[in-house]
Amino acid sequence: MTTNDWIEQAVTTAVAAVADELDAFSRDLHAHPEVGFREFRSVRAIGDLLARYGLDLETGVGGIPTAFRSRIGSSQGPQVVVTAEYDALPGVGHGCGHNVIAASSIGAFLALAPLVADGRLPGGVTLLGTPAEEGGGGKELLIQAGAFDGFDASVMIHPGAVDAAAVVANAKRQVVATFTGATAHAAANPHLGRNALDAAVTAYQAIAQLRQHIVDTDRVHGVFLEAGARPNIVPERAVLEFFLRSRSVDSLLALSRRVENAFRGAALAADVEVDVAWDTEPIYLPHRLNRVLAERFSERSAPRRSVVVAVEDTGQPAGSTDVGNVSQLLPTIQPIVAIGAPDIPGHSRERADSTLTPDGRRAILDSATALALTAADVLVDDDLRAAAWAEFRAAGEPVRVGDLVPLAPWPTFPTE
Q1: Which of 57, 312, 352, 358 suits 213 as a labelling partner, its CA being 20 to 30 A distant?
Q2: What is the DSSP-derived secondary structure letter of residue 284?
Q3: What is the distance, to the nearest Å, from the Cα of residue 102 to the centroid of all Cα atoms in its chain?
Q4: Whether the Cβ atoms of residue 36 and residue 89 lie closer than 8 Å to each other
């Protein structure tokens, strides 16, 4: 039996043995969704599952209460990190399928653990729990804490509409504009007031008009956080929050300047003050694709699924993820694994419920198997690691957020 054959057999058998537990775990997370940095129950459920297989879980990694780590194998030799997401969306639950992500990553780790522990695979494997992907940037905070240092590859999957081994993710940053005016009686003496809400509305409209003059792949979308207290009081405070997305950091910064001009111009027009606060949440970097690892994942998925390796830039709009920040430091993949009908929108209750179907179970098992096999290849195949790093370096030096913009303030984490 060749090395490839026995690894395939061992991993496939191991994933099949835990299939029911992985599906039950995914369903449990779906039933008990927790938003970013509040995933306390979810982390305990993960710890309980690993403990049944004799694996320890270290919580509070990087000073983040709901970040965790489990390590197996030697600190010498090649190293792979399997990342897990498990936060939910407010009001929508697991509408981004993070329950499937966590179950798939845990399944891959459980399949690899005995092979690494007894030396059949060299080096080490780490399961790293990364909270608050849906705003909060848990991976970026863990990068700053050094939790991603020393690895040869980072792997995870994400549910979606189609099977794809590599997809583009945009850079994203956040901005909050706070307009401050002066109150007055809106009927008796409005001329004595300065209307912060008027400024916010003008800024919102200016940004709406800006959208027709940006490239199709850029995105600017925002909400009113505050808009006054009562109709008979001239609003003295109004607050807008926007997300900006773009293909590259340079184009994101250029878009940022135009949006800030809209805020400041609107404040000038309404004769109010404005405070523009960028990046109170960590900035998300664009995904640096690694075709070498993506193609290996595609090969490892082929017996179970039809996987298409995406081109670097399809010209279509894309979302954003803090996996992009990891991809700027080391070879990284986040393939998309299809669940349900292609027209199910992301961030929807329909997407959340699709993870409970037989298609969702299949996605977990297929993903756990392909992730484990790809990670095993990284550990045993010197040429694969060298090629992945060569592709990474050909795209430039590693990039850290702090080299580009001031880092977001370290958050104050909630307690249970």
Answers
A1: 312
A2: B
A3: 12
A4: no
Query: Helix (H, G, I), strand (E, B), or coil: what is residue 133?
Result: coil
Q: What tokens does 1 get?
A: 């039996």
Count of other CB atoms within 10 angstroms of residue 203: 28
pLDDT value for 313: 57
Contact in structure between 335 and 296 (CB atoms under 8 Å): no
Q: What is the DSSP string of 220-265?
A: EEEEEEEE-S-TTB--SEEEEEEEEEESSHHHHHHHHHHHHHHHHH
* C-alpha neighbours within 13 Å on the C-beta side of residue 256: 21
> Looking up tokens 């009113």, which residue turns up?
224
Question: Is the pLDDT reported for residue 367 higher than 60?
Answer: yes
Is pLDDT at 229 greater than 60 in this prediction? yes
Q: Which two tokens stand for residue 135?
A: 């705003």
C-alpha distances (whole Å) from 52 to each of 18, 179, 274, 396 are: 11, 54, 55, 43
Please give the Cα distance from 92 to 355 (Å, whole number): 13
Exposure letters 324-363 (e unless 16+ CB within 10 A, then b) = bbbbbbbbbbbbbbbbbeeebebeeeebbbbbbeeebbbb
Give me the mean pLDDT over the 263-273 stretch: 98
Q: Exposed/middle/buried for 52, CB within 10 Å: 0-12, 13-18, 19+? A: exposed
Please say whether the beta carbons of 116 and 71 come within 8 A.
no
The CA–CA distances, whole Å, from 277 to 132, 255, 401 equal 21, 15, 17
**Beta strand pairing call for 79-84 and 153-155:** parallel
Query: How confident is the model at residue 309, as a pLDDT?
Result: 66
Distance CA 386, CA 394 (A): 12
pLDDT at 272: 98
Residue 331 has pLDDT above 80, yes or no: yes
Nearest C-alpha neighbor of 137 from the set 280, 29, 333? 280
Average pLDDT over residues 8-37: 97
**138 near 199, Cβ under 8 Å?**
no
CA 99 to the chain's CA centroid: 13
Neighbours of 393 (CB within 10 A): 11
